[in-house]
Every structure is written in C-alpha cells, then in structure tokens.
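Quick question, first post here. What does this chain look like in 3D?
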Amino acid sequence: MSLETRGVIKYDPDAKAGEAEYVIECKQLDICQEGSGDIESDIETLTEKVRAAISEEFHIPPCDVELVRYSMSVIFDVSAPVHKTLDKFAKEEESEKVPE
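> Answer (accepted):
Ran it through. Tokens below.
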C-alpha cells in the first residue's frame, strides 16, 4: 500500500511580529510549525513529523517515509529608485559601470 502526502516549507520575510518567517506545513496531517530556514533540516523535520502523524493516524508502528520529489518556487520583487521607471533605472546602472 502506498500513501502520498504533500508538505510545504514557506519563507515570509514580511511575517508579523510573533509569527515565524519559516513555516513547515502538511495540511493533510495537521502539521504546522516553525522552520529553521535550512532547507535540508526542514525537510528532515517534516519527514519525521509525517512519519509520526501516519503512525498515530493509522495506529501502526513508525513506517518508512521517503522524500519522492520536491520543487522550489521563488518569487522576487524588483525595486527601482523612487520616481524612475525601470527602463531608466537599467540605463543608469549600465552607464555607471566602469569598463574593465
């Protein structure tokens, strides 16, 4: 028998005071806790939490939980100087470069 569950590791630099910037979640198993920001240790933490939750949910001894695949989604915010359009910002940056 195989059971697939999904987890998420989120980073929010704009987290409000008292909230964690890094969060580990697996909504299917009601797992939600602060993360460390180290992707490898957060994956390991999530793996162990999933193992424990599956064991508790199905009343079985701890079972093997294997990371099958993961992906990373990254969102960037590009900011330019105030009162300048991005095309003007790019031209100024190029003119400020010193030839090597």
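The longest strand covers residues 22-26.
The helical segments are 39-58, 86-96.
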